[in-house]
Amino acid sequence: MKILITGAFPLSEEERKELEDLGHEVFFQKDEREKTEHPEDFGAVVCNALFLYNPIESFSSLKKIQLTSAGLDRVPLDYIRARGIELHNAAGVYSIPMAEFAIGGILQLYKGSRAFSDSQRARQWVKQRDLRELYGKTVCIVGTGDVGRELAKRLSCFGCHVIGVNRTVHAVQGFDEVLPLAELKLAAKRADILICCLALTDETRGLIDREVLAALPDGAVFVNVSRGALVDEAALIEWLRIDRALGAVLDVFEAEPLPADSPLWDMEKAIVSPHNSFVGERNHERLFSIMKSFFVS
After folding, report:
1. Any long-range contacts for 147-152 (C-beta under 8 Å, 24+ apart)?
2. Structural domain harbouring 51
């Protein structure tokens, strides 16, 4: 099979040889925004956003797609399903670094990291008397998939009570209880920390709205490491401006890059990062392992 691998996965020569030893011909296209040469030749593609710039219809021999992302919002799902194309995402590849990143942001807010950093730069010996503990807190994780499970596993070790909210309800290891999406506002009322790691769909777009944020108790923290469109950003900005909110850890936004005039840049309560939570030094290894399994069959 001829496999096209884009720059979304920087293939090494050793990895290319491993795929060739499985009987495949491997081709590389660095920039997904460029026109793919002879797309009709490829039976499989490894990519991220290739089909935003190249029409999938031109890949007439396509049998398999391996995405380098966990999300499915950059591929034409209806077309893929209608033609029986086998589609795999990168489920599980980024879950560990994303869970660590989210908890790291929460701890920055709980342990006053910014205040200590400011004091260090000013060479001032200033104690913080209002630091918080994760122990005993109730955490609501919206989405009980790979990222949610990694979060639940770690937060349970901190002694947190972990509530999952998901589109389908079933017992999930690491969660003390799992509730349906219809009960999100009720779960938010109980949550010291609300973490969003649900996939973006038509059903979940704008899920975290003004009512959900208003339901959070005093001193709550909101975290989003999934997709910015899951959240009403204007409502989030309003919530961060009130005294009740402790803060937010925000890695994703409605518009990316985050516009320079966004109020979030200057908000003391907001920890802003550039869609970076997925990065970890073992991602490449995990993704290539998935790719090899995918292309064996």
Report:
1. 147/70, 147/94, 147/95, 147/98, 147/99, 147/197, 147/225, 147/226, 148/172, 148/195, 148/197, 148/198, 149/95, 149/173, 149/174, 150/95, 150/96, 150/98, 150/99, 151/99, 151/102, 151/103, 151/195, 151/197
2. 2-93+281-296
